[in-house]
User: What shape does this take?
Amino acid sequence: MGQHLILSVVGARPNFMKIAPIHREIARTHGLAHFLVHTGQHYDDALSRQFFNDLDIPEADINLQVGSGLHGEQTGEMLKRLESVFIRKKPDIVLVVGDVNSTLAASLAAAKLHIPIAHVEAGLRSFDRRMPEEINRVLTDALADLLFVTEEAGMKHLEREGIPREKCHLVGDVMIDSVLHALPAARERAAPRKEEMGSAYAVMTLHRPSNVDDPEQLASIVRALGAAPRTIPILFPVHPRTAERLEAFELLDTIKAYPHIHLLPPLGYLEFLGLLESARFTLTDSGGIQSEAAFLGVPCLTMRDTTERPQTVERGFNHLLGTNASIIPEAIHRILADERKPPVPLPLSDGKASQRIIRIIQNRLAERTASGS
Assistant: This one.
C-alpha cells in the first residue's frame, strides 16, 4: 500500500508557525507524505525564507506567488491556482491552518473537488464579523471534515453552529508546539538585543487594518505611545503595512522622536520569540501573540475589542484594551505596578498537539482505505 498524501496550504507568516510542528510529525510518521503549498499571500520572499529556516522546516514545495490585493481578488486568484494544484497532486486530504484568505481559498477548492479538509485552529470565534478572519473561520469550519480545536470554548462554538461532534477534536494549540521546539534557539538568537536593552523592556506589534488603515486611529495610537511611561523601552518591529501607513499619514517622524520607542525592521520568528519570553509585557493586536504570551506568562495588552482566544483572558494574562488608544498609558502603568505572575499552564499545552492531529488524520485515512471510499 502506498503513502497517503497530506497537502497543506499556508499563505501568511502566522501559518508557518502552525504548520512547522505538523510537518515534522508527518515526516516521522510511516505511511504519510507531505506536500506544502505556499500561496504567497504574504509575498516578502526573504522574510518567508527566514521563517522557514527559523522553524527548522524545508521551504514550501510550491509557491503560487499570488501576492496582495482586495479580499475577493486575492481569494479568487488563490482558488483558481490551488484548484489546479489539487487536481494534479490528488491529495488524500487537504490540511489548512488558521484564518487567513489562503485558508478559505484552499477549503473552497478542496470542497468542490470532494477532497476531505482538516482545519487546524477550528472553532475560534471573536464574534466580530467586521474582521475578515472571522468570516474565514466560520466558512472554513462549515466546510471541514476534521476540525482540530485549541481550547474548550471552540468546541462549544462548533456545537452551537450545528457541526457534528464526531468531526471535532480538542487537541490543543500547535503554536505552543512550535514555541517549545524553538525556545532554546530563540533565547540564543535574541541574546544580543536583550543584552543591549537591559533587564526591563517591552515588545509591541501592530498590523490590523482597524488600527493602521484609519489615519485618526493610528495617530491616536502614536500619541498614546508618546504618553506611555518612559521608564521602559518598547521594542516595535514594524510590519511592512504599518510602516507604509506611518509614512503616508506623516506619523513616522513623530514616533521616531519618542526616546522610549525603538523601531525595528520585521524580526524573524526566533528573535521575536526570544524577546517576547523575557519582555515585561507585550502590546499587540495579533491573535497568535496572545496565545504565546499567555503560555510564557507575559502580560499582554491587546488593542482589540474582542479576542478569539478567551482562555488567555480567563487566565489573567490577556487584557483587552479595545480601540480607545488613550487608555494605553494607564494600562501600561498598571502592568508595571504589578509583579509578574508565574505562567499558568494552558490545557493541553504539552507540545503534543501536532502528534494528536496526525494520529487522528492517520486513523481517518486508514478507515477510508478500509471502506474503499
Q: What stands out?
A: The first strand starts at residue 4 and ends at 10.
